[in-house]
Amino acid sequence: MEGKIALEEHFAIERTLEDSARFAPNADWPELKSRLLDIQERRLREMDENGIEVMLLSLNAPAVQAIPDEAEAVELARRANDFLAEQVERRPNRFQGLAALPMQAPEQAAQELKRCIEQLGFRGSLVNGFSQSSRREGAIYYDIPDFNDFWAEHARLGVPFYLHPRNPLPQDAAIYKGHEWLLGPSWAFGQETAVHALRLIGSGLFDRHPELTIILGHMGEGLPYSMWRIDNHNKWMSEQNNYPAKRAVSEYFRENFYLTTSGNFRNQTLIDAMLEIGADRILFSADWPFENIDHAANWFDSAAISENDRLKIGRLNARKLFNLD
Predict the structure, then answer these.
(1) Which domains, ranges and CATH numbers included, belong to the chain?
(2) pLDDT at 238 over 90
(3) Which residues are the active-site residues?
């Protein structure tokens, strides 16, 4: 399929590059490093060879989210966003931007989002999971009241928020001790991000901001498969889903979330996601440079779905969601 739009596609600047080194064996690091630092050359050739018209680019992980010093996080987010804006300006018909945000400092994150959307022309934000701050211990999740004004601003601007994975902090990862192969994309990324998404839903965020849109990668981080059980466990018991939100989790999931195909190239998983959330709320993505563009494109172009759904998922849904017309 020609004209695809991909939107979980990462780059790095020199200051964030080493954050990705842990996700590649030493032998593969030179290749991953080269992919991360390139935007205008090999990336563009790969897009042309695989029918991708537009990429929405975002900073690698965890980057800004893992910087405890809030002033430093604010400065790095601004620097990364300015760099990305320069790259997009060179080829705006091929690249668009998603803002990196210093969520350790919610007020500054809202200000940076506003700058990126209204001044730099970005199409939304991508945040690498929970944040860390020297002002508080442990992981900072975005369902707490500190982020009320941030979410209000995101909703006002009318752009999507991409909740991207990161590994749990070491103190929260005891279950993986001795089984470190489960960290990263094989399992921990999905588990961590799915719980964060459920926290947002249960907090009542979407009752306050029903127009807010969250994007999850990797075909929903396992959530579509679990949606019925989340809503219906032990249904005969007197208390059900005791959380602040007013409705069932699955209702918010179908109304406030989009999913991408990033790094999860399997027909059965795609069809399950389509049955749960609908073809109108799924978006093509590759997860370059951590996954191959050709692996994503070759699979998607021949996936066992209708041509109408292929066009929606591959192109039309993204054009509408990100206002690319």
Answers:
(1) 4-321 (3.20.20.140)
(2) no
(3) 287
